[in-house]
Amino acid sequence: MRCSSLVGSVIRYYPVLTLKVFDPTNLPDKITVMSTQSSGPSGSPVRLPGIIGVDHIGIAVPDLEVAIAFYQEKFGFEVAHREVNEEQGVAEAMIQVGPASHEVKLQLLAPLTPESAIARFLDKSGPGIQQLAYRVTNIEIACASVRARGMRLLYESPRRGTAGSLINFIHPKDAGGVLVELVQPAAH
C-alpha cells in the first residue's frame, strides 16, 4: 500500500483525526514548578529511608494450587516458600522467578475465608496484581518516614508477614492507587 493510499484510508475511517503542531510562540507566561516536602537541599527527591529494592509483586488468585500449577507449567517457575497466614486470612506461595536469592518474587495469595482482604479484592477486581512490595532495612524507620510524608499506613504497628518478615501497607489512596507493602525480611 502506498503512503497516499494509507493516509486516505486513515482519513476515511478516522475523520476526526487531527494533528497538533508545537508552537514555541504560544507558551504560557509563567510555569509553576511543584515540589514536595520530601525533597533535599538541591530540590531533588529524598528516597524513603531504608528502601533497598522491590521485594515481590502480590497476585490475588482464587485457588492457590491451580495458580502454582499454572506458573510451574507455563513459565517453569519454582515455589520458594509456602505458608498459611491466619492473621491475614491467606494461603500464599512465593514463586522464584530466577536463580538469585535477592531478586523480585511473585507472591500468590489465595483467600482462606470470604471475609479476607484477598477475597474482597477478588470479588471487586478479579484475579490479578494486588500489591507491590518494597524491601526495607528497618520497618519502624520506614513507617515513621511514610507518616512524616503525610501518607497513611493500614496498621498502627508492623505485623508478621511471609516467612517471619515484618510488614505494613501504605494506603492506595496515598500511593498513586497502588497498595504498597513495606517488607523487612526476617533476620536469618
Number of strands: 8
For the record, the count of structural domains works out to 1
**Beginning-to-end CA distance, first to last residue:** 64 Å
What is the subunit arrangement here? Answer: single chain
Average the pLDDT over all residues and give the rounded result: 83
- Uncertain spans, ≥5 residues at pLDDT below 50? 1-24, 27-37
CATH architecture: Roll
Succession of helices and strands = HEHEEEHEHEEE
Q: Would you state the CATH class? A: Alpha Beta
Q: How would the global form be characterised?
A: globular
CATH superfamily: 2,3-Dihydroxybiphenyl 1,2-Dioxygenase, domain 1
Order of strands, widest sheet: 2-3-4-1-5-8-7-6
Rg, alpha carbons: 23 Å
Mind summarizing the main beta sheet? Answer: 8 strands, mixed
Strand content: 25-35%
Main structural class: alpha+beta
> Helix proportion of residues, in percent?
10-25%
Number of helices: 4
Looking at CATH, which topology would you report?
Answer: 2,3-Dihydroxybiphenyl 1,2-Dioxygenase, domain 1
Can you describe this structure?
An eight-stranded mixed beta sheet has the order 2-3-4-1-5-8-7-6. By secondary structure, it is an alpha+beta fold. The protein has a single domain, classed as 2,3-Dihydroxybiphenyl 1,2-Dioxygenase, domain 1. The chain has four helices and eight strands, in the order αβαβββαβαβββ. The model is unreliable at 1-24 and 27-37 (pLDDT under 50).
